[in-house]
Amino acid sequence: MVEIKASPFPFRLVPASAALVIIDMQRDFVEPGGFGETLGNDVSACKAIVPIVRRLLDACRAAGLTVVHTRECHRPDLSDCPPAKRERGNPGLRIGDLGPMGRILIAGEPGAAIVDELAPWPGEIVIDKPGKGAFYATDLGQQLMSRGITQLIFAGVTTEVCVQTTMREANDRGYECLLITDATESYFPQFKQAAIDMIVAQGGIVGWAATSDDLIGSIA
After folding, report:
1. Cis, bond preceding 8 (omega within 30 deg of 0)
2. Is 97 a catalytic site residue?
3. What is the mean pLDDT of residues 180-192?
């Protein structure tokens, strides 16, 4: 067991029972021309965390932790993308439309791929999810259970949407959840901070939060 400085109190990590979950570090969300930008967002902040997530990933791999990567994407026929999701808002391009990196948020298209710097290794878990949360309509729960995982460490984008949704799903399923604050990002800084505040409020009602330095320094 390793004790990590965290909020609202130290997190006791059991490496053999822990997994790093990297949420949606895809080209469609962090690179110009992707879905995030079509929604009118500045993607530069999300792109900027790639080196931090890579350092975290390297440390967790070296420590022998299970690694999970998620991708939000849909089938080419959009049968798993409800109209309520595809038609919401007023983006320049919608899910399934042809963009600069192929069809937006479609499985197998270049834009749906995880950025090269964080590419999964053989044997690491890769979850394609049609919703915001990584447990919805996926086999993530079964894969974690089969490996004896009880603790989840979170990074990725965006903090207040897919990251927080997955943390809340995990918390309801009994996992201990730790958010790495500088390895997650939002298009809206105030939303990121609000999400972190909600996660650690009331004695950690959803989970814990720590920096990448605090985690890496403890498991190195």
Report:
1. yes
2. no
3. 98
